[in-house]
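User: I'm new to structure prediction. If I give you an amino acid sequence, what do you actually give back? Let's try with this one:
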Amino acid sequence: RVLQLMNLTDSRLAQAGNEKLELAMLSFFEQFRKIYIGDQVQKSSKLYRRLSEVLGLNDETMVLSVFIGKIITNLKYWGRCEPITSKTLQLLNDLSIGYPSGKSSQILGKSQPGIDIPTFPPDFWELGARSGEHFSFLGINNQSSLSDMRCRTTFYTALGRL
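Assistant: Good question. You get back a string of structure tokens that encode the predicted 3D arrangement of the chain. For your 162 residues, that looks like this:
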């Protein structure tokens, strides 16, 4: 249901958005990642069967694509909202680190079998080259806040890992 709600709210972000709802969805993604994404998860769990039936998300790779899409959307539409930007970048950072069990393979890196890097949206790989006009926290000017610098550091650290 949360993924269906996310699709609905994301389609309406150009008109209006709800900060508390976005933060709640990011909390859901954080918990979902901890529980259902990783090397300890049974790939044939009921969850993935149900996601396949309802949303056409057959496996972890497809769910990760949804996560990446949400990250891109949040950075585009919520760049001036520090709580959402920070939480979104933390999700990106957590995904770039790897599996919750501490396995050294990268969850989104080339060394991870089964995940084809080019299948992620082209926008994702262009994020690092975007200027401050697209993502306010990437702007390099004399007016950068400490929060912007933290977000920028988290962002480039995650991209560097990927």
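You can read the tokens as a compact description of the fold. Here is one thing that stands out. The longest helix spans residues 19-36.
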